[in-house]
Write a structure and sequence with these properties.
The protein is of the alpha/beta class. The protein has twelve helices and eight strands.
Length: 313
Amino acid sequence: MIKRILKWTVSILVGLVLVFLVYSSIRQMNYNSFIDNEFKPTGRFSDIGTNRIHFKYYDEGEITFVLLSGLGETLNTWHKIEQELATRGRVFMYDRSGLGHSEAGISPRSVDNLSTELNEVLKKEGIPGPYILIGHSAGGFLARYYAYKFPDKVEGLFLIDPYQEMSRAEFGEWPATYKLINWTLRNASWSGIPYLLLPDPPHPTYKTSKALRAFGQEAFAENISLQEFAAIRKDTMHLPVYVLTAEKSNPTYVALFKKWNQQILDTYSHEINKHILVDSKHHIHVEQPSRVLLELDQFISGIEESGRKPEYE
């Protein structure tokens, strides 16, 4: 009797799991179709050989701003400041491979591959430099790596609550639950499970199967990226840098974030460099776009007064 009850219980549980999986995968498939139909590309595509990258470019002005989005995010994250930036200079923004409307790219999605990918698009599309790199979160980490790898192409770094490499030493390896979520993102984004479990994203395009998978791949490459960054990092670099820190981040860690962002700034030497605390959560450019633009204007003025690098094609 007990064996029969256990057998029926297991059968029911398996059946419920299968029903849920069918339901969630259909929801994900319908959502993917909805995004494809309702959210068309707003920019152009650059074929860099391995894949095509979706980008937008405003080509008026003397300064070139290159916008680097956070982990798993697309160029839509810049919608609050993109038009105003275009009145200040040339603006280049893009979807990294696998995100938004860009095709999947080479793996692993490590910072060196991301940096090479960015450089290929800029070169292929003839975007003139040197560049002011504006990087948010993981995009700030990418901006710093790009500046180390291509120093002659970078005029300054404007970092918005950037990812700090020091956090791994403080917090250690990912917990098991995070690893499981990441595995699901990378290997079962088609199933709809991440779609149903994760909160609503900043923009609908962030929750397609392709985007969820790319998000997981970027996060999964963290260890490789940290190794690549350690190999290329310099103790000091003469470069204009502003670092904005969100003071409304997780209150448990905000003191650490302030300290680590100051440590980031300390690795650069320039008379205009500045660490700015902002009364905002992590997406400062979304919550306080006017403050970001104000600080950026001061940053540009400081660079111009100290002498700009000559432009190149």
